[in-house]
Predict the structure.
Amino acid sequence: MTLCYEDKNIPPFFLGSGFEVPNYRPGATIEILRGLENKVRNVKFKFVRKPWQRCLKEVQKNKVDAVVASYRAERSTFLNFPINELGKVDETLAISMLGTCLVGKQGLGQDVANNNFPISLAVPRGYAVLKSLQQDLYRVIQTDSQDDAYQLVLKGLVDGALGLCQIYDEQISGFPYSDLLEPVFPPVDISYGYLALSKDFLKQNPEVSRALWEGLGAMPLHEYYLDYVNNPVNHKIPRY
């Protein structure tokens, strides 16, 4: 089955930029899916890398079989997510559970605690977490990449950016320049990522689809992400 994922370097999920899939340390998400192949018979992933919006368009047209994506109501019109007995998305079968925090220089946490809003925030275009922010509290500057966002913070041109700060229940500093910047807890957003399947794939392979989701639910997923956070290939890597 063909899975499309973003052609940007987004640690700890995907490492490397461009169209090639690294053989060594490709990212926690890719390693999880490669491990999933050993749990589900007759499944072999073929990974292709493209701009994120193109991945979504191709899975919508059934040109690829799957993407890794957070649940959005509008996406359910062309993507299948694992559903529980109550007809809701089954969070126990997610491929990730991650917290996103405000990230900035020392003093940002005090500004938040003292309600010194609005806070200027640099965020890459297309980040879904923007929808969860209380808009009147932030002055958002959109950038082309997460590295651009962090550069604005480091230069003192904005107050903060967004970064990975929690994996399941464990607080971490899984963002670039964590030696210079610090997260502000609690997270502004907790998101679940899912192996989201095309309509055609689920229709043609209902048993395999369920086996894939249940296989993820039985894996120690947090260990993969923590390994990449604690043993980064390069600390100065772009985007989240």
